[in-house]
Design brief:
The protein has 252 residues and is α/β, with parallel strands linked by helices. Strand 1, helix 1 and strand 2 form a beta-alpha-beta unit. The chain has 9 helices and 11 strands. The chain is globular and about 45 Å long.
Length: 252
């Protein structure tokens, strides 16, 4: 019997800042280590893995903006928070033998490489996990938009968006027990329904480039691997590229 093959050869994993945190710590050692092991499972299977980190566990600019802080300043501070998370993930990966590189959109040569598209692709070809920090390097853009942009730039076949719930629902399932979970959605359907998947800029970029998004629960061990190998996990948004058919068949 032949070994199962990944549905995707190259993915971009979008992690929120909350993925690094626990109730006791904004960057929890055990939580980060567990997340690194999840990424390692996929990397060891021969899949090219890139990661975009959020920074909400360290810095949330909206509260400061409402108190009068300049939006650009708040956004730049948020970018720095994503770099801290990126370095934490890199350290956790390398402690379990997974080579990785952090690339940042804001130059900080002492701690990370500057983002260079061709260099990032070369790292992926060599089997290294590439972690993107500092967003796009520009204020007014979210890390969701960063994930969509970087995924398109490096030729990823899908964005895997890790969340606290097991897919996309018609309403918040934690507040509305009647909320319906979707197994598959078109890009325009997400926009028209106003579903909270990614911001509209990120979603439109994915739609324009036919880049599928899989939204899944990161808190279940092994879920990243399950998504990559085509198991019916979470919600699939759009996408007609090679490899997506395996996920579609599983979700049906």
């Amino acid at each position: 019997m032949s070994e199962p093959q990944p549905a995707f050869g190259r993915i971009l994993l979008k992690l929120s800042g909350e993925a690094f945190a626990s109730k006791e710590s904004s960057i929890d050692v055990a939580t980060t280590a567990a997340m690194a092991e999840e990424v390692a499972q996929v990397a060891r299977a021969g899949v090219s893995v890139a990661v975009v980190c959020g920074g909400g566990n360290i810095w949330r600019g909206k509260a400061h903006e409402s108190a009068g802080m300049d939006r650009a300043t708040a956004d730049y501070m948020g970018m720095l928070a994503t770099v801290i998370n990126a370095l934490a993930l890199q350290d956790a990966l390398e402690r379990i033998g997974i080579a990785s590189r952090v690339q940042t959109a804001i130059q900080m040569q002492q701690i990370a490489e500057p983002y260079i598209r061709r260099r990032a692709i070369r790292h992926l070809e060599k089997g290294r996990v590439v972690i993107f920090g500092a967003g796009t390097g520009n204020p007014y853009f979210t890390t969701d938009t960063t994930a969509a942009l970087r995924a398109v730039e490096i030729g990823a076949q899908a964005i895997l968006k890790a969340t606290k719930v097991d897919g996309i629902y018609s309403a918040d399932p934690l507040k509305d027990r009647s909320a319906e979970r979707f197994s598959r959605l078109a890009y325009l359907e997400v926009l028209q329904r106003g579903l909270e998947v990614m911001d509209n800029t990120a979603l439109t970029l994915c739609m324009d480039n036919d880049l599928p998004i899989v939204v899944f629960d990161m808190n279940v061990p092994g879920n990243i691997r399950r998504v990559v190998f085509g198991e019916p996990i979470g919600t699939l948004v759009g996408g007609l590229r090679a490899g997506v058919s395996l996920v579609e068949n599983a979700l049906q």
